[in-house]
Write a structure and sequence with these properties.
Strand order of the largest sheet: 1-3-4-6-7-9-10-12-13-14
Number of strands: 14
Strand content: over 45%
Distance between the termini: 34 Å
Helix content: under 10%
Oligomer: single chain
Order of helices and strands: HEEEEEEEEEEEEEE
Length: 269
Amino acid sequence: MRAIPICLAAMLTACGSFPITSEPLLQFSPYLAKYRLRGDVAMQNDPGTGIENNAAQSTDTFGLGDYEDDLGLRFDLGDGFGGLRLDYYHLDMSTSTSGQLGDDFGALIAGDVARMRAGMDEWRLAFLQSVWNVDASYRGTPVEFKLAVGGAWANRDLSMRVTTTDGLRTQGVDPSGDAFYLASRFRAKVRQVSLDLDYAICPSLTTGDFDGTQHDIEARFSYAVPFQDVTMFAGYRYSVLRAEGDQDGFGWQSDLRVDGVQLGVTVTF
């Protein structure tokens, strides 16, 4: 667990001076996230002859995969581009749709008709230092380009519950842990309109159940309302969550994705 904050502190030191001015901007951004959780998950079972590995099954098999509405909150402290960012997102997904299992899954057996409910609390803390800034013009219109690099830490607590439609059998898979990312942000701005592209990669620097290379991509179009401290935005996010662990005496593996659109507003103080 201590490896994550140590690595984050090392990157902050490497980035040089802390990019928060004597009068830093505080930005608060609540947003509606219309995301979906999809991918594959597999879990061992014991039919009475010993532990057996089972084939991975799509979340579609468990009736999960539609876009659902959730809420997110973001706080930024810095110069309006680089600095500290704290992001919280709560995922809560369930469906009345069910599917038939093609293989055993822990306490569930092949042929069971089941559905899944998933929930996740995700915290992300990032620090980015501006390293490149260019002012240009296109047909007399000012255009600004910026680039920032740094690091990010994410903590995720994901719970997936699979239950047969008759309620006789239930199996849970609960990936949780931390991931440390190398992060970058690019911004192109024309007058009140800007495009932010964030990309973060975790090269297997994780704790808990999360393992392997993780990717997190986010794109946002923003419009700053003239003469107001308010900015409206629309964006898209794609996040890879790979994990493996043990639960109820059975090993499991998952290769999941969270993706979808977001709509929100940023208020600057």
